[in-house]
From TrEMBL:
The modification 4-aspartylphosphate is found at D57. Residues 8-121 form the Response regulatory domain. This is Response regulator. InterPro entries: Bact_response_regulator, CheY-like_superfamily, Sig_transdc_resp-reg_receiver. Keywords: Phosphoprotein. It holds the Pfam family Response_reg. It comes from the Bacteria.
Length: 123
């Protein structure tokens, strides 16, 4: 009997349409996806269930990605890789500043996002 392990991903993105699109793309690929509209909501979701990967927008209301990453690392260390998803200029630098495992710039191709997520889950 084969046991299938479903990886859990948290997508924190304030754009409703993009958040739902990313969640749908990852769900179709077999991942269990939780979503949050901002960093504070993401921390609440993590309090309920720790994900295996966090896909994080940097510019969000209430609590932005930088503040979320700092608070997450204070509470949980670097136990979960963070992948930055941003339209910000110098995306790689923004990711490096928060100690993210990687980044993907908006706009992006669906297959590019899925490849990046899979590669970070193998780390």
């Amino acid at each position: 009997m084969e046991i299938k392990v479903t990886m859990n991903i948290l997508v924190a993105e304030d754009d409703d349409d993009l958040r739902e699109l990313v969640a749908m793309m990852l769900s179709v690929e077999g991942f269990h996806v939780q979503t949050a509209r901002h960093g504070q909501e993401a921390l609440e979701r993590i309090g309920e269930h720790m994900p295996d990967l966090i896909v994080l927008d940097m510019k969000m209301p209430v609590m932005d990605g930088r503040t979320f990453a700092r608070e997450f690392q204070i509470r949980y260390g670097r136990s979960v890789p963070i992948m930055v998803l941003t339209a910000a200029e110098h995306a790689a630098l923004r990711a490096q500043e928060i100690g993210a495992a990687g980044w993907i710039a908006k706009p992006f191709h669906c297959d590019q996002l899925v490849r990046m997520v899979r590669s970070h889950l193998r780390m």
